[in-house]
Every structure is written in C-alpha cells, then in structure tokens.
C-alpha cells in the first residue's frame, strides 16, 4: 500500500479517513477523487497532517477516462471507495443520483481497476487492492429478537439508498469471483463524529438544538442504530487493508445501540451542561416527534466477531465520550457550520424534507 486512490474523500468519513491515514501511515500518498457534491467540501480537508502527501482531484467516479488517467499517472495500487450518495431521506425524494453514483460509479471504478491491474498488469496483483466501503443497511431491518447482522446475513435492502449500495456490493464481489480482482468489503453501521454533514441525525440535532429549532424525531424515536465513532471506522478499514483476506467481507459496528430518542436526549443533556445559560436550556424541550420516514428500518445491530478475531479490531470510543467530543467539535467550528447553513441547497433540502412532516 503506497499510492492510494480515495474516492469521496471530501465527504464525512472519507475526509476523516484521509486525516487518520496520513497520521498513521508515514509512507503512503493519497489521491482524493471527489465530485464535491453538496456533501463534499474542501473545508473538510483543512489542517491535514503532512498535506504534501495528499492530492485533490475534482471529478466524478462515473468518468472512466479520468479514473484511468489517475490510475496511470499515480500508479495507484490501492483504491478505497467511499464516494456515494449517502442519505436515505434524499434517496426517497430522488433515487436517480443514487443509481448513478452508487451503482454506475462503482462499476466504472471496478472496470478501470480491472483494466489497469489485471489486463495491463501494471502492478503485481499481489500488491493491489480494491476496498469497497459499504453499509449495514444492505441487510434490511431487524425485529426485536433477531440476531445481529454478520457477514452471512442475506441481503434485504429496503430503501433506494440501501438497494443502490447492495448493488454496488454485488458488483464488487462479482469482480472478485469472475475476474479475480483483489477486493475487500466492509459493511459498517452508522458513523458519527466531526465533519458530518448536518442532514444526518446527530449533527442535525446538535445544530438545531444550538439554534433553538425543533428537534425532528421521526415516528416514536424507538428505532435503533449501532453507532460507531468515525476514527474507529478508519482504523477498521486500515486493518482490513493491511491484513484482511482478499475476497472477504467484514462487518463493522460500534457496540452502541440506544434508540434514536436516547441519542437526542443525550445531545440535549450535553448541551445543557456545556451551555447552561443558553436561552433554550433545557434543550430536550425542543424535541418534536414528526411523521415517520417511509419504509423506516427499525433496528440494526452488528456482530463484529470476524473482524475482532481475525484482525484484532474493536471499537475504542464509548458513545457518551464520542458524543461529547462531537458536540464540542460543532460548537468549536462555527465557520464550518455557517458555510453549510448559508448554502441555498441546504436550506432547500431542509424545507423539502421537513416542511411537510406533521408534528
Ligand atoms: P458523505 O455523503 O458525507 O460523502 C460522500 C462524498 O462522496 C462527498 O464528498 C461527495 O462529494 C462524494 N461524491 C458523491 N458522488 C460522487 C461522484 N459521483 N464522484 C466522486 N465523488 C462523489 O458520505 P459519508 O457519510 O462520508 O459516507 C461515505 C461512504 O461510507 C459511503 O459509501 C456510505 O455509503 C458509507 N457508509 C456511511 C455510513 C455513515 O454512517 N455515514 C455508514 C456506513 C457506510
Ligand atoms: P440518519 O442519520 O439519516 O442515518 P440512517 O438513516 O442511514 O440510519 O438517521 C439515523 C436515524 O435517525 C434513523 O432511524 C432516522 C432517524 N432520524 C430522525 O429521527 N430525524 C431526523 O431528522 C433524521 C435525519 C433521522
């Protein structure tokens, strides 16, 4: 692993991963291909450690010529593929972009990797890797007594987002079995931490609470996610890149499964403590139950036995301390927050997703 192409590296997890890898891997160089959609920004890449080892390229993973050019120019031996449309609610209101990026984009990357590594034999196949970053949402929704998802759970996606990620996963695995492309996949649970776009639950609730706006909890708020601090995810991917077995999938989770309402209450309690004089204290007053998400998955839970026993990985961040760090980060970075809040696109999204929901 020397020359890594990271796709989607200006987004939430990709930018955290780049920061983490530059700090932990002194030899690597990173080329970051990102289309800078609404979810990606150069501000996410501020203050990288050793920035000379990071090259940013604005472009789409659907542009096969550009991807081929980058593979040749930088002699890419490792692809870590994050680029995606990633928000379930947006996939409900507009699924087309999800099909393009998550399916066609993944296919385009796979084709380029196949040509460069397998057809042109540009580098030894022992030293190359296509790592695909996926989600636990491909497995569908668990009932209260179902066992957690693991690597053998059948796929049963229920949102356009999850279905598009599932399609991507299937293509990646097909390229391993059919062409021998050296791949690995991680299916990870919900991430949280700095630089997450404030359309997702945790940053949205933090920013709304600080502003004294309603905290829109979908339905009864008893849906369950398995929350993972983003640096733990980066370390899991790093372990898979180093020691993961080619062709294998690893499920990655945080071992933290509170219902959504508890997450929101914890954020409110943290803000009550950090900002006792805020006009909105106690912040829990702002909680408003609103119309549920259509097809809302009820529960996710991840079994991490395989990655723990094979690669020695387990999450290190506790939810309470991770949430405290995250709330502090949003409070300490008003310029980052304001840049997003000012975007017309963001205001339009908030209107489109929330205005029609009944309290
Ligand atoms: P994000 O939405 O914050 O970032 C996605 C990035 O991809 C953005 O920078 C965007 O500009 C870029 N992008 C979108 N379309 C592109 C295209 N066609 N070409 C190049 N770049 C493009 O997403 P995230 O939360 O950082 O998620 C990253 C990956 O991790 C995704 O594949 C997602 O499915 C997966 N994942 C996310 C979570 C989570 O909780 N956020 C959990 C498990 C898996
Ligand atoms: P989200 O962060 O969108 O991640 P995902 O849908 O991929 O799990 O949502 C996390 C949970 O929070 C999910 O159960 C939906 C819920 N949620 C709300 O209750 N209100 C909101 O405004 C949002 C964005 C999410």
Describe the overall structure.
The strands form three sheets. The protein has a seven-stranded parallel β-sheet, sandwiched between helices. Strands 7-9 form a two-stranded parallel sheet. The protein has a two-stranded parallel ribbon with strand order 8-11. It is globular and about 65 Å long. The chain has twelve helices and eleven strands. Helix 1 packs across helix 7 (230-243), helix 6 (201-211) crosses helix 8 and helix 8 (260-274) crosses helix 10. It has 359 residues and is α/β, with parallel strands linked by helices. It starts with a strand and ends in a 5-residue tail after the last helix. It folds into two domains: 3-189 and 228-254 and 299-315, Rossmann fold; 193-224 and 258-295 and 318-346, Alpha-Beta Complex (UDP-galactose 4-epimerase, domain 1), CATH 3.90.25.10. Residues 7-8, 10-14, 33-37, 39-40, 60-62, 82-86, 101, 105, 133, 135, 165, 188, 190-191, 197 line the site of nicotinamide-adenine-dinucleotide. Residues 88, 190, 200-201, 204, 216-218, 223, 225, 260, 293 line the site of thymidine-5'-diphosphate (TYD).
Rg calculated over all Cα atoms: 20 Å
Mean pLDDT: 97
Q: What is the SS-derived class?
A: alpha/beta
Main β-sheet, spatial strand arrangement = 3-2-1-4-5-6-10
Listing every helix as H and every strand as E from the N terminus to the C terminus, the arrangement reads EHEEHEHHEHEEHEEHEHEHHHH
The CATH architecture name of the largest domain reads: 3-Layer(aba) Sandwich
Q: Which small-molecule species are bound to the chains here? A: nicotinamide-adenine-dinucleotide, thymidine-5'-diphosphate
Shape: globular
In DSSP terms, counting alpha (H) and pi (I) runs of 4 or more, how many helices?
A: 12
Tell me the span between the first and last alpha carbons. Answer: 51 Å
For the record, the count of structural domains works out to 2
Q: Flag low-confidence runs.
A: none
Largest sheet report: 7 strands, parallel
- The CATH homology group name of the largest domain: NAD(P)-binding Rossmann-like Domain
By CATH, the topology of the largest domain is Rossmann fold
DSSP strand content: 5-15%
């Amino acid at each position: 692993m020397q020359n890594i192409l990271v796709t989607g590296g200006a987004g939430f997890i990709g930018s955290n991963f780049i920061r983490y890898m530059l700090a932990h891997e002194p030899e690597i160089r990173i080329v970051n291909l990102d289309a800078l959609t609404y979810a990606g920004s150069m501000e996410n890449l501020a203050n990288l450690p050793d920035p000379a080892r990071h090259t940013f390229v604005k472009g789409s993973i659907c542009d096969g010529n550009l991807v081929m050019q980058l593979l040749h120019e930088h002699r890419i031996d490792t692809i870590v593929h994050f680029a995606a449309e990633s928000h379930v609610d947006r996939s409900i209101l507009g699924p087309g972009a999800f099909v393009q990026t998550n399916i066609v984009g993944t296919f385009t990357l796979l084709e380029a990797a196949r040509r460069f590594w397998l057809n042109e034999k540009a580098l030894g196949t022992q030293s190359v890797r296509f790592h695909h970053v996926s989600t636990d949402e491909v497995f569908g929704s668990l009932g209260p007594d179902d066992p957690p998802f693991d690597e053998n759970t059948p796929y049963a996606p229920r949102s356009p987002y999850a279905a598009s990620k599932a399609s991507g996963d299937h293509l990646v695995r097909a390229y391993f079995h059919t062409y021998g492309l050296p791949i690995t996949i991680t299916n990870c649970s919900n991430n949280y931490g700095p630089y997450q776009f404030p359309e997702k639950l945790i940053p949205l609730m933090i920013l709304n609470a600080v502003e004294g706006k309603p905290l829109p909890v979908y339905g009864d708020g008893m849906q369950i996610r398995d929350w993972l601090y983003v640096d733990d995810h980066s370390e899991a991917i790093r372990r898979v890149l180093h020691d993961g077995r080619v062709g294998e999938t690893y499920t990655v989770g945080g071992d933290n499964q509170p219902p959504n309402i508890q997450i929101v209450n914890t954020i409110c309690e943290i803000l009550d403590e950090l900002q006792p004089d805020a006009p909105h204290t106690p912040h829990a007053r702002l909680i408003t139950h609103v119309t549920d998400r259509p097809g809302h998955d009820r529960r996710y839970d991840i079994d991490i036995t395989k990655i723990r026993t094979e690669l020695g990985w387990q999450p290190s961040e506790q939810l309470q301390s991770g949430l405290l760090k995250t709330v502090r980060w949003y409070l300490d970075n008003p310029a980052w927050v304001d840049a997003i809040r000012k975007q017309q696109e963001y205001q339009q999204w908030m209107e489109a997703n929330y205005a029609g929901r009944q309290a």
